[in-house]
Amino acid sequence: MRVTFIGGGSGDGGSPRLWQPDDQQRIVIQGYRTGEDACVEIPHELLSFAVPGTRFPAFEDTGCGTYLVRGDLVDDAEALEIMNIPGHEAAVEIALVQGAR
User: What's the chain's average pLDDT?
Assistant: First the structure.
């Protein structure tokens, strides 16, 4: 699966990050591992890097300035090579809300 970098708030090579797969109705979210399979934690601000008009599903707000995001764990070798994710992080792929963009 090919992914394209959308944005992230921690500078060049930093993370968490947003990625766009070839399927425009889905998005890949790279964040911190939580100990729960297929779940990452991201700062609220990360969503500001999405293309304007992107509609995300509801995420679980931790009350500490972060969201828990559950989706399909990204294990595609091509995508992982492109993303170069550090060991303390993971990426999940989620469907965007109908009518996005």
Answer: 91
Pairing of strands 26-33, 89-95: antiparallel
**φ, ψ of residue 32 in degrees (nearest 5):** -80, 135
Task: Write the CB contacts of 87 (distance below 8 Å, at least 6 apart in sequence).
Answer: none
For residues 62 and 41, what is the distance between their CA atoms, to the nearest angstrom? 9
Closest CA to 8 of 25, 26, 31, 24: 31
pTM: 0.90
- In the predicted model, is pLDDT for residue 100 greater than 80? no
CB under 8 Å to 8, separation ≥6 — which residues?
A: 14, 15, 16, 17, 18, 30, 46, 49
CA distances from 7 to 15, 54, 82 (A): 9, 13, 14
